[in-house]
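User: quick one, fold this
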Amino acid sequence: KLLSVAGLFRALTACEQHLCVRLLPDLPRPPQSMIENIDREYRPQTKLFRPDSESHVAIDATDDWREQDYEWIKPMASNNNVRYRFNERDTAWVRANVAPVFEENNSGVMFFDHPQLPHTDTTRRFVLLYNVEVGGDDAALTFWRQRGHPVERGRGLAVPPGQDLQMLDQVKGPVDCWFLVAASVLHSVEGVSERRTNLQVSFNELPDRFKHLEQSVWESTEL
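Assistant:
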């Protein structure tokens, strides 16, 4: 049985006192070589991105995502930020130290150079993140609920500010640890004053390593 997002919320609340994110300080930190090899300045030109590209994938509509390989992925509707896929060495490290099975075609390094709208992810249900740069002292991962809607939403939504949003949860940083996010809840990073860079490991089903979260399942998607 797949863990429902609501079930994850309940487990996260009990374990870390955060509703939509779980801090995982016991997971191994990325090796320094992985961090040092990130090119934090290069950004591909927008004209390179196309839905049918084998290297620079554009997802201009939710149906454009076909779980294909890519080197870079174009910003989604909610932001102007890009990410690139892990290389073979970094993928092997994640397999050996974090999770043996994950969405390898959809995991890598993301740069937050621009603000983002509250959104749900298009390509995954859960994502494990590690901040290389947090985006400034006030940068905070923030989760939202839109009034009149369930907590868990469809993929690929972007909701402008002022659309009856109420904050559900917020965590600054996090710094120096992996953290697991329920990506089908509206979320954004608020208070960013400088570039934010993180490693992203994507899942559509939680791996065995995190199955202990299933011991508390909350059936409702409402808060």
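User: anything notable?
Assistant: The chain has one domain: 5-214.
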